[in-house]
Each structure stands twice: as C-alpha cells, then as structure tokens.
Design a protein that fits this description.
heterodimer; A: 155 residues; mainly beta; Jelly Rolls; five-stranded mixed β-sheet; 1 helix; 47% strand; globular; B: 302 residues; mainly alpha; two-stranded antiparallel sheet; 7% strand
C-alpha cells in the first residue's frame, strides 16, 4: 500500500525560489549524514521530510511526495540527509509526470541502498520525488523520519 | 538674520513635510502588510499552493544554462539596485525581492562577487521592509562576498535565508507575499533567458524558454489562490497576453525506458524518453517582447 502524504508546505523560493534561487554547496548539513556528491553540482532545493512515526509491516514509514519540474538536458543528483537516528535510512524515489517509477535508491532485490541517484533528464516536465524512511525495527515500532531530500544539478 | 530665519523656517517645513510624507507612506505600507493575513487565510488552498510552489523550478537553472551557452555576464540586463528604495508597497517589494533574488543567482553563477554584495544588500533591505529580514545576516554575507573563495558559503547562506523566510511566511499565512516573490523570480529568470536568446540564440536555450510554459501554468494556478488580493489580480491580468502566447507553444513527449548502473555507490539512471518543444520564431519573438514589457513594468511601476 502506498500511502502518499502530499506536502502542504509552501516552499518558496523561494525555495523557492526560490528558495532555491541560489546554488549552495557543502555547508549547513553538518548535523546530518549528508551524501557527498561531486562539487560541480549546484544546490537547487531541499525537500523537508516529516514522515509518519511508525513503521508499517514492511518496516517503512509513510511517504512524503513532492512535485518538481525537471528540465531536459540537466543532470540532477538526489541525495538525502537524515538526522538523529542512525538505524533509519531514507528511501528516495523519482517518478515521471505519469507517476511511472524512474529510479529508486533502494534495490528491492539486493536489499541495498544507494547513496544518491543521478538522473540525466531527457523529458522536461513535472516529476515527483518521494521520500520515506526504512528502519531496522518491526511493524509498529516508533521512529522519527526527519530529514531532507536534497536536489542538486549541473548542466 | 531674516535670511537665516527664513532658511530655517523653510528647512523645517520641508523636513516636517518630508517626515509627514514618509510617515504617511510607512503607515500606509504597514497597514497594507497588516491586512495580508486576512487576505491569505481567506482564500488559500494550502494543499494546492504547497504543491504548486514546490514544483516550480529555480531560475538558477536558467542562469547556469546561460553561462554554459558561452554568453558573457551582462550587468545591464539586471534590475538596477538603485531601484530598491523606489518600491514602497508590499507587492512591489515582494515582486522585486524575487527579481533581485534571481539576479543574485545569475551574479553568483558568474562569480561576480562585487555585484553580489550590492544585490545582497538590496535583498536584505527589501526583506527587512517585508519583516523577514531576520533571515539574512548581512554582516556575514558581506564578509563572505569579499572573497571569491567563499562563494559556496555565500550561496548556501543566501539559499538558507530564503528557505527560512519561506517557512516563516508560511507560518504567518502570508502566502501571497511568497507567491509574489516567486512571480518576480520566475519572470526575471525568463527575462534573462529571452534577452540572451535575442542576442545569442541557441537551440537549447530557446527550447528552455518554451518549456517555461509548464512553470507558467503552475505559477498562474498559484496566483489564482490569492485572488482576493487586488495586487495579485493585477499581476494575473498583466500576465494574460504572455500566457496566451505560451499557450501556442507545443511540447511533445516520447515515452521510453530507463536503465541504471552503479557508479561509486551512486545509482546512475538513463532515460530513453524525450520531450520536444515546438516554438516558432514568431512565438519566441512575441514571448521575448511580452516578457520584457511585463518585467519592466513590474520593476518600475510604483
């Protein structure tokens, strides 16, 4: 079952911009276990993940999903930072505009997490980025899925 | 003696009038700010707004593409910082905070640290006047801007400031300010792209301009959430002709499959799908002209 919690967050600019108006690299994530990516990638946007506090029977928390327009010809790198709980790892999934899965940092077959997803976009348009946490505990175990999905880019 | 008294009297009158005018303008501005919460709370679909805002791309991508195209840095394209003090209403401050933010992104991409300092100051000033200046530590930013080696830290702190500002605006139900900032930033990004394409056209940049149709549609949806704000209605109306022109742009999609491989622990994904933008020369010309007209209106209309 895929429980999707759409973000209500008004992220401007900003974040917009915003917020994401400016490239930023390497600082500000000191308290978190951020994945290193090549320095040529420019910071684009951080997606705040505030997921459910209980694992389901598969040991995964509910999903935070964000929509974002990716541009053809741009190489994106998706990483995550997850604070406070070393036993929890963040799942990242990238979907196209039709919600077809393009990539996941978790290989179900190998039960393996990849540190980052690098995606060379060939189709401009809306994409969806989904984040959830996976822990070592059993169903119903309380946890905190709190962190950020970090999107960087390079041309 | 008479001459001195006259000068003093006239000076006092001018000073008094100036203070009165300034107080009047400030009072009017504060009153306009104080009405924002009611406007926003009344008609904001928080879910819709959140979805739209998080989907809009950063104009930084366009600036990066402009640089990659080989175009030289051009300060003449930017909104002059001496315009900052001319913005007296909250909506002009918000729109141009976005404009200056996009300009600052362009400046940063080109590592123009001297200009960066000036634009940081403008961003800080407008943010202060919108009561969100606490998220920009100007002293630290100014120190970092003096050394090109600090550019990464400078960029991150600026970004962080905008992110915190966004959070704050969200908490205070001032989403219409966020929407206006976003509008200014998006429009400035489009303006920079079209200006460069006008003088140094290349296929990728033109295609990126056409792709802005997607973002523009989202932006319009966002603004629609705040239609009880007359200033936003005015912005929507002003965007009407440009929207009509973007509606003529066609984007075709070809589905494909993805393949992936692991490189140094990173999952590298390749997608065989594609999109193609169809934009005629006439459409590009019209979009360029309309964008210039709208952008210049929003940076000068007081």
């Amino acid at each position: 079952m895929k429980a999707t919690i759409k973000t209500n967050t008004i992220r401007l600019l900003l974040c917009l911009l915003t917020i994401s108006l400016f490239p930023a690299i390497g600082i500000g994530q000191k308290s978190q276990t951020s994945t290193a990516v090549p320095s040529k990638d420019l910071y684009l946007k951080a997606f705040k993940v505030r997921s459910g506090v209980s694992f389901n029977q598969s040991g995964v928390t509910s999903v935070n999903e964000f929509a974002y327009v990716l541009s053809k010809g741009v190489s994106y790198v998706l990483t995550s930072s997850q604070a406070e709980n070393p036993n929890v790892k963040m799942r990242m999934q990238l979907f196209d505009r039709n919600h077809k899965l393009l990539a996941s940092n978790f290989d179900e077959g190998k039960k393996k997490f990849y540190s980052a997803i690098q995606y060379k976009c060939t189709t401009s348009g809306l994409h969806y980025l989904a984040f959830s946490c996976e822990g070592s505990g059993g169903a119903g175990e309380k946890t905190e899925c709190k962190g950020e999905g970090i999107l960087k880019f390079s041309n | 003696m008479f001459r001195t008294t006259t000068i003093l009297f006239v000076s006092t009158c001018i000073g008094f009038y100036a203070c009165q005018s300034k107080q009047s303008a400030e009072t009017k501005f504060q009153e306009s700010l104080d009405t924002l919460s009611a406007v926003t709370v009344a008609d904001t679909s928080e879910k819709t707004t959140g979805d739209v805002i998080s989907s809009l791309p950063s104009p930084l991508e366009i600036s990066s593409m402009i640089k990659e195209s080989g175009a030289d840095f051009s300060s003449s394209m930017l909104n002059p910082v001496n315009n900052t003090s001319k913005y007296t209403t909250y909506h002009m401050k918000a729109i141009n905070l976005g404009v200056f933010g996009a300009d600052l992104g362009y400046i940063n991409i080109y590592n123009q640290n001297k200009s960066a300092l000036e634009y940081i100051r403008s961003v800080k000033n407008l943010a202060d006047e919108l009561r969100v200046g606490q998220f920009f530590d100007f002293t630290t930013l100014a120190r970092l801007a003096k050394n090109a080696e600090n550019i990464d830290s400078l960029l991150y702190l600026t970004t962080s400031g905008f992110e915190k500002m966004d959070e704050f605006l969200k908490e205070k139900n001032r989403g219409n300010i966020s929407a206006l900032i976003l509008t200014g930033a998006w429009l400035e990004g489009l303006y920079l792209a079209t200006q460069v394409a006008k003088t140094k056209p290349n296929k990728e940049l033109i295609e990126r301009i056409g792709e802005q149709k997607i973002s523009f549609q989202d932006l319009m949806k966002l603004l629609e959430n705040f239609k009880s704000d007359q200033n936003i209605i005015n912005v929507i109306t002003s965007c009407g002709t440009l929207k009509n022109e973007f509606d003529k742009v066609e984007i075709e999609y070809k589905h494909g499959e993805t393949s992936s491989s692991e490189v140094d622990g990173v999952l590298v994904v390749v997608d065989s799908g594609s999109s193609t933008v169809k934009i005629a020369d006439e459409q590009l010309k019209n979009i360029t002209n309309l964008t210039e007209e709208l952008r210049n209106k929003l940076i000068t209309e007081i």
